Amino acid sequence: MEKIIVRKSPALKGVIKVDGAKNSILPILAATLLCQEECIIHDIPDLQDVKVMCRLLEVLGAKVEKLGRETLKITAKNIATCEAPYELISKMRASFLVMGPLLARCKNAKVCMPGGCAIGTRPIDLHLKGFKYLGADIKSESGYVNARTEKLVGRDIYLDFPSVGATENIIMAATLAEGETILENAAEEPEIVDLANFINSMGGKIVGAGTKTIRIKGVKKLHGTEHTVIPDRIEAGTYMVAAAATGGDLMIENVVPNHLQPVIAKLREAGATVEEYDDKIRVKAGDTIKALDIKTLPYPGFPTDMQAQFMAMLSKAEGTSIINETIFENRFMHATEMSRMGLKVKLEGNSAVLKGSSKLSGAKVKATDLRAGAALIIAGMMAEGETEITEVYHIKRGYSNIVKKLQNLGADINYEK
Ligand code: EPU
What we know:
- By secondary structure, the chain is α/β, with parallel strands linked by helices.
- The protein has 14 helices and 24 strands.
- The chain has a four-stranded mixed beta sheet, with helices on one face. Strands 2-15-17-16 form a four-stranded mixed beta sheet, covered by helices on one side.
- Helix 1 packs parallel to helix 2 and helix 8 runs parallel beside helix 12.
- The radius of gyration is 21 Å and the shape is elongated.
- It binds uridine-diphosphate-2(N-acetylglucosaminyl) butyric acid (EPU).
- The site of uridine-diphosphate-2(N-acetylglucosaminyl) butyric acid has 24 residues, from helix 1, helix 5, helix 6 and helix 12.
């Protein structure tokens, strides 16, 4: 079984380039099913999740061609089946994002229900509510959701919670519906804006992405396009925290500083110096790390995908830090793993209380999800001795070449078979 071995590392120094955003490319790949023509997409990160989504597109009848190291051409001329199988959906929750495009294109979609995962039960009720409002008849049986319709018709839809996935799935379904859909309390994440820009470049009519109200005017047909995915703000944030946690000084390239405002604000509050440029950010660690209060929120609030990495960094902070997780019900598995490395942490409901500076020491730990895995790598670089991280496949789902990238910055990290 593959492992990552991390030893106490010197301060990270150097320049690192961030890849295209995982959470943008997954919905964008799903959206290629909306049109029959060629879609060329650049800056595709080399990730396991991207491979799973491409395989799913192929099963559904699309042709997926690699044009270069980071470019793919997808042509969904014909849809071979509108059934997305268990084998692929169970590998990755985001594959449920093919439901909206399939329903729009084929008026029929049968997609295996994604299960829960390490971070919570993660229901899909808001996705289904949206499809229903647009006119789909939804049936759930034998672990599959089957949505059928004569035609989709635009409606006003209010989301009870600004779910990222539901916003994306509903936008994609509404793109080919008759009339206008107004989606209220929509998610405002940059990845939603990227998806809307992609669909608009295919001839879609979406306005308001990036705000709480998104208007989608249905069109009859979309055409092929060429698009470059936005940089991954969570990958960038992970390296920013790694710099501050190891006492380092990193220049992080290919970022949109505006997408990272809560992360930048919290790093400054912790004592790091953060310099913002047009498309890069420099993070210089402060002499000490100050304790923080963090509450995860939908964008533009502090991202849930960054709290684990901050927890690792805050292990070194003087004073008490509190991390309050409001997005997922069970996203503190990394706290339990880090406590095995000596982190003084107490879990109280959806809060983690870190009691003063902990002296971390290397241990055998498990990456319970991909952000937890990244956080354990950061903790491993701070800890005395050797940390052995198993279930590395989680990390590969969301970070390309993380071991090589960190080695280049001076980290003592290796894969071991
Ligand atoms: N929720 C519902 N009903 C729904 C949909 C969501 O109750 O129909 C709940 C979820 O259970 C969760 C909350 O709403 O408690 C937020 O879920 P959301 O739908 O916003 O998240 P997602 O679309 O499943 C995406 C990212 C996650 C990221 C979250 C929050 C992708 C592929 N995934 O998930 O990324 O944490 O938004 O920002 O875009 C990661 O990259 O590590 C990751 C988990």
